[in-house]
Amino acid sequence: MSDHRNILYFLLGILTAAIVVLGYNFYQAKKQPDGFQINVGPNGVKIEGK
Q1: pTM for this predicted structure
Q2: What would the pLDDT profile of 1-44 be if each residue is shown by its tens digit?
Q3: How many Å apart are CA 45 and CA 40, to the nearest integer?
Q4: Contact 22/29 with Cβ under 8 angstroms?
Q5: Which of 31, 29, 30, 49 is nearest to 39 (CA)?
Q6: What is the rounded distance in angstroms from the CA atom of residue 18 to the CA atom of residue 15?
Q7: Can you tell which superkingdom this protein's organism belongs to (predicted)?
Q8: What letters, b where the CB count within 10 A reaches 16 and e where it falls short, cover 1-14?
Q9: Under a CB-based contact definition with an 8 Å cutoff, are residues 32 and 45 in contact?
């Protein structure tokens, strides 16, 4: 019985790690990129640092 419980904890650990990694990757994909942005509009050129 103890072996089954250890396997269950192991699988839960793997699943938790996978969820954390996927969540971090999703967060990195959705956040604004580092660097700067150049906008050219009716008021001239505007440079914004990120």
Answers
A1: 0.59
A2: 688 999 999 999 999 999 999 999 999 888 877 778 888 988 88
A3: 5
A4: no
A5: 49
A6: 5
A7: Bacteria
A8: eeeeeeeeeeeeee
A9: no
